[in-house]
Amino acid sequence: MNPSHCVRMGQIDYTNVWPVFHYFDSSNLSEPVEQIIKVPAVLNQMMLSGSLDIAPISSFAYGVGEEELLILPNLSVSSDGSVHSILLFTREPLEQIVNGRFALTNTSATSINLLKIILEKALKGTPSYWDSAPDLEQMMKNSDGALLIGDHAIRASWTDHGYIVTDLGEFWKRWTGYGMTFALWTVTKTFAENHPRMVDEVVQAFEESRRRSKQNMEPVIQRSIQVIGGTESYWRHYFNHLRHDFSAKEQAGLALYFRYAYEMGLLRKEVQLNIWSDNKLTRVKE
Question: Does the entry feature the keyword Translocase, yes or no (predicted)?
Fold first, then answer.
């Protein structure tokens, strides 16, 4: 690697990635790293434009940029049922408003398209959508439902607003039998081809951070209370329901999501899960 090169690394500005990043110390890597902390929508665009080398991004964004990206192994933000931070708020039961108007958070892509798959494919609705900043009351003023993700969804779930709350991870699991992967750690193919040793270092560092967090989640829980609020019991339950690996089980659920997205025209082509491995491409077959 050119000594003057600084690895451009993204970090999602949500608590759901903290277990993977908590013990990750870029100063221990052999090359300098610039970390850019943004919401998923911004990181998605930066990664797809080549402005970043490595970043966790929305799973859907990987589907869009598959030809230029590789998935880092054993890392994701997934759930096997309820995720507690991908939430749809409605006044009426979802089945009664499938042809209604829905406000979409402007901070992610995976969850937006998951909602479209649920409303249009699972429930056979013909809804309309509009994009909004993540402000629940503003979103609901002229909508039948509002989608929030990440810490915005978590905070809204603590409020006594009277809305019905549908957890999209739980709905997906009940409908398909699979868990759902909301974000993936990715690297550009160009960077991976030119700097395989650095990619290997980064993967090992993230996996070690994830392992240490899983052994003792208390520091992440306390940080969440300090930054976001809430109780120790809430955050313990929340992190215990998240998955941060990317096993065959998670891969199968994401492959189904991509297939549905392609069938509905949300993706322009079928998507393969191309996973980086020691500078050799591992392609996961459905």
Answer: no
Determine the distance from the C-alpha atom of residue 139 to the mean position of all C-alpha atoms in its chain, rounded to a whole number: 22
21-42 pLDDT per residue, tens: 999 999 999 999 999 999 888 9
Distance CA 164, CA 146 (A): 11
Query: Is the dihedral angle over the CA atoms 93, 147, 132, 156 positive or is it negative?
Result: positive
Q: Give pairs for 224-228: CB < 8 Å, separation 24+.
A: 224/15, 224/18, 227/15, 228/15, 228/151, 228/154, 228/155
Which position has the token pair 């994009």? 131
86-176 has the same fold as 7-80+180-284: yes
**Strand stretches in the chain, DSSP E:** 7-12, 33-38, 54-58, 69-79, 86-90, 101-105, 128-132, 145-149, 164-167, 180-188, 242-243, 273-277, 280-284
pLDDT greater than 50 at residue 235: yes
**Cα separation, 42 vs 169, whole angstroms:** 23
Instruction: Please name the CATH architecture into which domain 86-176 falls.
Output: 3-Layer(aba) Sandwich (3.40)
At 216, list the tokens. Answer: 């003792």
Contact 117, 257 (CB under 8 A): yes
Give the bridge partners for 166, in sequence order: 88
Strands 273-277 and 280-284: antiparallel
The structural domains of the chain, with segments of one domain joined by +, span 7-80+180-284, 86-176
pLDDT at 280: 56
Burial (CB count within 10 angstroms: exposed 0-12, middle 13-18, buried 19+), residue 123: middle
Domain 7-80+180-284 belongs in CATH node 3.40.190.10: yes
Strand partners, 183: 58, 77
